[in-house]
Amino acid sequence: MSARRRRRAVLLQAACVAVTLFMGVPLYLVTLAALSSRESLNRFPLPLLPTDVSTETLRTFLSSTGIVGSFLNSLTVGLSTVVLALLVGVPAGYALSRYTFRGRGPYQLFLLLTRALPIVVLSVPLAQVFLSAGLYDTTYAVTLLHTALALPTTVLITAAIFLSVPRDHEEAAVIFGATPLQAFLRIVLPQALPGIAAAAMFAFVMSWNEVLGAAVLTLNQRTLPAQVLSTLGDSPLAFRFAGGFALVLPALLFIAVMRKYLLNMWGTTLR
Amino acid sequence: MLEAGPGRRHLPGGVMTLTAEPATETPPRARRPRRARVPAPLLLIGPSLVFMTALFAWPTIVGVGQAVTGDDGPTLAYLRRMFDDPYFWPAVRYTLLLIVVLIPLQFTFAIAMALLLRERPRFAGFHFYVWVIPLAISDLAAGLVWLSVFTDRGYLNSVLDHLGLDGYAWLSFQHKPTIFLAVVVAELWRATSLVFVIVVAGMQNIPKDYDEAAAVFGATYWQRLRHVILPQLRPSIQVAMILRTILALQTFAVAQALAGRDFPVLVGETYQWYSSLQNPHVAAAIALVVLLVSLATSIAYLRLLRVPAGEEAR
Description:
Strand order of the largest sheet of chain B: 1-2
Number of strands of chain A: 0
Oligomer: heterodimer
Distance between the termini of chain A: 41 Å
């Protein structure tokens, strides 16, 4: 019996390690490729261990035309998306968590529907709308699209957060003479802040990763993924590996910070 | 989970407006009378409603218009041009094939991962971290990551060479099956985490008692899995399935990074028509096809997987 149990434990460990390798090894490889010199990338077979680490490939990538600019654009769009999505989304999330109002059901259905709408359906017509509005090829246009994409999730996440803030505290504050706005700012917001930060990071990552819409809505004011995508066809492999690495790096940091929120937040709210 | 619980009380309206007063009092003289009449929830959700109507509903209508109207009135020319394009039907075929192959694999994989973690292996925290990293990785980045593996002089062929085997042109346009394989592997790598997180979260809501009771009565692991665990995971799996299918329909940058137009998919064709061929009308028409297919799949799933009423209120 105990031998069988031990064999099961070993199998379990082995399976977990296998999955971890499948998930982790490609990350290691793209890092390795991005940190190799061009000369060693031309060798075959490629070295599988970091024998000669060099920043040459990354430096070439960073100094190619449009990369730094698009990096800054990505940052601008990402941060503006966060601000806008929170400004519009937090009140709606609060309303969903605190009130039962008429039209609440349809509103939630609308949120779900918008999430099911493919980005591609929005991007092409929006390009025309923004052209006639004079917003085409600006970071504002991309920000608006990304906010629209992040908004349903922001509303749902913040609604879940406010639900977990006990209502008694808020009511007590009001009884002791605070205005509802004061009660919200002084009592509810501090307690909800970690969750709101998580929602903000979600919006940022969504914006940082979105490729198609940004590529369709811009020509010169590209974001980083859009820039990498549009030069994909005629760039050397080294450039593409460095681009992949530059796009992956924030994801590692993001997940490291977000790990403990993931299950509460995405697991249950993503649906 | 956002449904109002039975114990939910109804706060007096206007609780969030700056002028709010206890509802029992008569409103003091005309202090912002117009403002007070708008119910607070409406004020709060209003901006988001306006925003999303402007950026979701309006473009959808414009898009339909773009697909069926030309410079001089309504026309079916763009739709015909889309159907006649030699890349269109392969794109439809590859997109659907990808979904049919990918989704079952992905769900098996994700559920297996969740079950592994449920057994509390050692270093569970570390494993979980690595397994969810792809959640934050864009499809373009995932495509580039796997490009470094599958490209002719890439890491896979290097490993084969170290082992004394011959390399293979995995991504050559002559080898469609291996291109498809590469795209499936890359998507499996990138998007399984999403399903995994939803399934794990769903598993946390399952009380352990049922499973333990079944074990006490001598049910084997497979019997418990089949009759206790999976049925309770059904709501989570259903949601994940709709979400993933819609997202899989939009697969684009992975295929673009790995194979360019050698592996045409629907959204990739939209991008081609828009940016290379400079024809937003046909691009909008293809986008509408994507929309219709995703609507149809969501409805089909909701019908097929409908949870019996009362099992989960949502």
